[in-house]
């Protein structure tokens, strides 16, 4: 049995339709399920954000969208423009993909300055989650990425886009330890990628994750399962 009740768990789930094939019907279903369960956040690709805001009007679910998604390799100027445009059309939470290649190369100044520039273009009321794509990183690189995120002013370090592989409890543990070491306890951890069952949620929460990025179908299945316990 999960430690969470369905209502409590829903307030920790970023329910999402962020695949290339997601259509208007998917977005409408996403909004309906997000409102039904009172999910904290519904996440769509940028072109669907205006529709999502309309569908979520009057609900307690935030409308969210990503920047630099899914590869993180566009220019800093492009990411800043994306963030500013999303703010203009009503985004309430932002997930930003770090430049993973630059991170692996050790160009940490580039990575940190880019993230700080994006955060600086966003009102403080909009939480920014920095995606570090742990499936492409070794343990030391995860530690370095976590420290950069903590120093940048991000609200969350997010494990991945969900496009590059599942998240592991081991990666969450590394992130949590590094946040403690560097004094980044103010930064929360969002787990994303391959979360399919209440047991997955339980395991990731037990090692430090406080928010969970889960695709529409899996999120509804998990919430239904928990509600029946």
Essential attributes:
about 230 residues; alpha/beta; TIM Barrel; 8-stranded parallel beta barrel
Describe the structure.
This protein is α/β, with parallel strands linked by helices and 229 residues long. It has a single domain (6-227), classed as TIM Barrel. Helices cover 47% and strands 16% of the residues. It is built from ten helices and eight strands. It has helices at residues 6-10, 24-37, 49-56, 76-88, 100-105, 108-120, 139-152, 169-181, 198-206, 216-227; strands spanning 13-17, 41-44, 62-67, 93-97, 128-131, 156-158, 188-192, 211-215. An eight-stranded parallel β-barrel has the order 1-2-3-4-5-6-7-8, surrounded by eight helices. α8 (169-181) links the parallel β6 and β7. The longest helix is centred in the first third of the chain and has 14 residues, at 24-37. The chain starts with 5 loop residues before the first helix and ends with a helix. The relative contact order is 0.15.
